[in-house]
Structure formats: structure tokens, C-alpha cells
Specification:
Length: 526
């Protein structure tokens, strides 16, 4: 067995940090448990990362990312993490909601030129919130597979969403919709996220992959993307496996270390059909970087590409993302064999108390926001405590004899074994009550537009006197700087800028003299 195991202490200190915390060195009482899981469950390879506050407390890699070439899993290994991709879509949607670019409760017809309507309930609107919480009425019916394959094959001239969701469409089948009206019934469906991603494109005028990279992946320095070509090193991408006729058989991402030619997206019109980017399951990312995203969807802030705290979501926006939108009552949806019992605006709320969905044994904190994934032989999990103080990531690229249920919950037995092995780490982190002085949150109010020269912000308590403001574009170039008076009694301040250009912008607020207080990111739609 090839294995890498590392324990990382605090990785940065300095005067320019808006967050300083003391993360205890967590002794790995479960190290032997993690060591044995690869062999006991006959896995091809695996990665496990836990994060206490902003610091990694456990990082464990074992097995092979490429069996044919005998390449080990290590800290640089990336995986196609399947449906955890949906949680990342929801995270970006929450940011756009915060900026006022989109709204959870707004009919998607306000964003799409030809929006889908439930054929049995044509007078009822479908909202973005319905899509993110799987309550739209959309199903992955028998027409979905052909529509998805034809979308991939036709890029950039992809078929319209109406082809599969409107009666009379080329790919439409009667089982593409359930019987219940939008908003009433939970049915997990991949197509919800294809429609949601198309809404994000239409509202921003940006291609889904570029929006993700520029607004989320690049600011946090993540080696991630919804296209293989977005990765830094194709050789680090794990092959996904199943056992077929007594041998490991590659199922996906078997590129042999050679970057495949990508399709030409330049003529694609954003807002047409974003399923070609596989927002429902096509994200490639490593375990360490995925734990950054789990920190964001549970805490709102995480270290950026330079190791400095960067706020992505303010407290109110984070609360909206995490607020339960559906809870299983025994008759209002399909709870997927007891696993899915509560859902927010895009996140599975595990350990909900509503069913057989516990994550970490004996950790009395619930619910735990996150998402599981399963495809092409891979399974994956990323979950966090409700306060964001601890999170865990588990990914395996294949299991020899398939996945079976376990005794403790609706998660698979191997997932339960990992969760059990991580219990001491989670309990120690929570009990330590990691001392944290949070960065002062900043929320951009309204939706800044191209050409604007004023940006209004909402600032949390803490700023006093005059402070300095610096604005940079996505390439890191300074576009504006100014001295700004302390916010008014309502915490609002007005920032004077040069005429804003479309794209991603990153702002820094600091007290005079250079001590950093807060950093934030926002989008100016095209």
C-alpha cells in the first residue's frame, strides 16, 4: 500500500492578517483506523482531509490514482467528485443572491428567455430555490440521458433546455416531470442543476465555467474546474475505476497523463444550456481544496490564494444558503433510502435528526451541511459542522467489490468507517473551541454595474476612524484606491471608484497604517 499521511500546523502568521486563531495540534488517535480502510474495503485509492478552523488537522492519502501506471494518490491528486459539484454551484448562487444579481424566490422566467414550466401546472412559477432544493418537479426521466449526450456532442451549438423539458421537444418524455406542483415534492434530480447553472449564466452574461473560475476558484487559489483543461496538471487527475471480470477497469478520466483536446466553447451563448459543463457532477478538485469550499459554505470565509482570509459570504447570506427549505415528513418526497431528509438552498443537511443520515458518531452538532457524490466507481463526501468550525472530506476513486450499506446510517459502510475514524478529530476540534477573531465582514449592497463609480458596502462592527480602500481586478491590478470615513451608524459606507468594468473585483479595507481588516470579492455583470 502506498500512503502519504501528513499533519499540518498553522501555515501562516503576520501583521497583515484579519484572522488570527490558535488551532490545537490534534493527536490522531484514529490514524490506525484510516490506515486500515484502504485494504479492508479494497479501495483503489483514497484521500481524507479534515480542517479545524482554517487549518488542516489531518491529511491522509493512500493507494493509487492510476493503477495502470502505478501512480500514488498524494496531496496533489484531483478527482471528478461527482454530485458534490452541486454544492459548489449552490455556493456561487448564494454569492450572486447576496449581490442582488439573482433571487432565490424569483421565477426563473425572469432570467431565461424560454423557461421551463411544469406541464401539469403551467400557471405556477419555478424558482431558483426550487431548482437548488430539488423541489421544481423536474425529474431525470428517460429523455435525460440522450439530451445530456447530445449536449456534449453538439458543443457549442447545444440543444435548448426546452428540447427535454417542453412537450413536443426532441428529447422530451412524459417522465421528465413529477405529478406534484413546484415547491411541494422533493425528488433529487441532476437536471435541476443544469437549469440552475443556465440561470446563473443568463443573469451574469458569463459562461458557467469562467464564472466559477474567476469568482471562486482563482481567488482562493484552487486547482479546480468543470473542464479537465482547467486543471494545472493532468497527470495528477485520478482515474475512476470499477472491478469488471476480475480486473480494475477505468470508467472515467483515464487520460494517461496527456491533456485531451478540449472542445471550442467560444461560440457558445451563455444562458442557452450549461449542462455541457456538467454542473451536476463534473467538478475536478483535490481533497485539500474541497475542504476550503466546505469551509466557505459553512463559515463564509477561508484563506485565499495567498493564505489571507477572504470573505465570500456575509452572515445573512450564509444563513440564507443554510436555511432548511425541505424536511422529510414521510410523505413529501423521496428521501433516498433514508439518506436525504433535509435540504437547504443547495446543500444536503445531514445529521438532520429527521432520519438515518448521521455523519460523525457521537458528535452532537446538527445539521451538518455538505453533499455526497457517486459516479463511475467513485464516492465522495464533504460535510461541515453547522458553525463551520470543522469539516471533513473523503474521496475514493473505486472499490473492488462495490458499495454496500453499513450498520449505523444510510451512508455506505466504507463512508461510515471513515466517519468513525474521524470522530476523535472532530470532537477534539469542537471541544477546543478554536479561538478566532473573525475578519470584519463586508457585503457589497445592490448589484454594481459596468460604468458605476460608487460601490455601497455593509460593514460589520469594528471599523473606527478613517480607513483605506483598495480595489483590484481579477488579474490583481489596482484599479482604485481611496481613504474612506468610518461607516455610518447602520454600518454602511460608500466607496468611490474608477468606472467599474465587467468582471470579478476584489476589495481590501484596512486601517490607516496597514493593518488589514477585511477582504471581499464581488462581480460586475457584463
Amino acid at each position: 500500500m502506498l500512503k502519504q499521511l501528513s499533519f499540518l500546523g498553522p501555515s501562516y502568521v503576520g501583521a497583515f492578517f484579519s484572522v488570527f486563531f490558535i488551532c490545537p495540534f490534534i493527536l490522531s488517535a484514529q490514524e490506525s483506523g484510516l490506515d486500515g480502510i484502504l485494504d479492508e474495503y479494497h479501495l483503489a485509492g483514497m484521500s481524507v482531509v479534515t480542517r479545524c478552523g482554517d487549518e488542516i488537522s489531518i491529511e491522509h492519502h493512500a493507494g493509487l490514482r492510476d493503477i495502470g501506471n502505478k501512480l500514488p494518490v498524494d496531496s496533489t491528486t484531483t478527482y471528478r467528485v461527482a454530485s458534490i459539484s452541486k454544492a459548489v454551484v449552490a455556493l456561487l448562487a448564494a454569492k450572486l443572491v447576496e449581490q442582488g444579481v439573482i433571487e432565490y424566490d424569483m421565477p426563473i422566467g425572469n432570467y431565461l428567455e424560454d423557461p421551463p414550466f411544469h406541464p401539469a401546472h403551467p400557471n405556477l412559477d419555478i424558482t431558483l430555490g426550487h431548482l437548488l432544493s430539488h423541489r421544481s418537479g423536474i425529474r431525470d426521466g428517460s429523455g435525460y440521458g440522450d439530451f445530456l449526450n447530445d449536449t456534449y456532442a453538439a458543443i457549442p451549438d447545444v440543444p435548448q433546455l426546452a428540447s427535454v423539458l417542453s412537450e413536443g421537444g426532441t428529447h422530451y418524455t412524459s417522465d421528465m416531470w413529477g405529478a406534484s406542483p413546484p415547491g411541494e415534492w422533493f425528488q433529487y434530480a441532476n437536471l435541476n442543476y443544469g437549469v440552475a447553472a443556465t440561470v446563473l449564466e443568463s443573469a451574469t452574461g458569463m459562461r458557467f465555467d469562467l464564472l466559477m473560475t474567476e469568482m471562486l476558484f482563482a481567488p482562493y487559489g484552487l486547482d479546480a474546474g468543470f473542464k479537465v483543461q482547467d486543471l494545472q496538471d493532468i497527470g495528477s487527475l485520478a482515474v475512476l475505476y470499477r472491478q469488471v471480470n476480475g480486473a480494475w477497469a477505468p470508467q472515467a478520466d483515464n487520460h494517461g497523463g496527456i491533456m485531451p483536446d478540449g472542445v471550442d466553447w467560444t461560440q457558445y451563448v451563455p444562458g442557452t444550456n450549461a449542462l455541457g459543463f456538467a454542473p451536476q457532477g463534473g467538478l475536478r478538485i483535490g481533497a485539500r481544496d474541497l475542504s476550503i469550499l466546505a469551509r466557505l459554505w459553512s463559515h463564509g470565509s477561508a484563506p485565499d490564494a495567498e493564505g489571507l482570509p477572504l470573505t465570500f459570504l456575509g452572515a445573512e447570506s450564509l444563513g440564507q444558503l443554510l436555511a432548511p427549505q425541505w424536511s422529510y415528513d414521510g410523505s413529501n418526497g423521496n428521501n433516498y433510502y433514508g439518506l436525504f431528509n433535509q435540504w437547504s438552498n443547495g446543500l444536503h443537511l445531514a445529521a438532520s435528526g429527521w432520519g438515518d443520515d448521521s455523519v460523525i458518531p457521537e458528535l452532537d452538532m446538527n445539521p451538518m451541511p455538505g453533499h455526497p457524490g457517486e459516479a463511475y466507481g467513485l464516492i465522495s463526501d464533504a460535510y461541515a459542522t453547522p458553525d463551520g468550525s470543522w469539516n471533513c472530506v473523503f474521496i475514493t476513486n473505486g472499490k473492488w467489490d462495490g458499495y454496500t450499506s453499513g450498520p449505523a446510517s444510510a451512508f455506505y459502510a466504507v463512508e461510515q468507517a471513515v466517519f468513525e475514524a474521524l470522530r476523535d478529530d472532530a470532537v477534539a476540534c469542537v471541544a477546543a473551541e478554536v479561538t478566532e477573531v473573525p475578519s470584519i465582514p463586508v457585503t457589497v449592497l445592490g448589484s454594481p454595474r459596468s460604468g458605476d463609480t460608487l460601490v455601497q458596502i455593509q460593514v460589520g462592527a469594528g471599523f473606527q476612524g478613517v480607513f483605506e480602500f483598495v480595489l483590484r481586478d481579477s488579474a490583481g491590478r489596482v484599479t482604485s484606491s481611496d481613504a474612506v470615513d468610518a461607516p455610518d451608524g447602520g454600518g454602511r459606507a460608500m466607496l468611490h471608484t474608477h468606472a467599474l468594468k465587467p468582471g470579478i473585483h476584489m476589495g481590501t479595507l484596512s486601517a490607516q497604517g496597514g493593518a488589514m481588516f477585511s477582504r471581499f470579492v464581488f462581480l460586475v455583470p457584463g
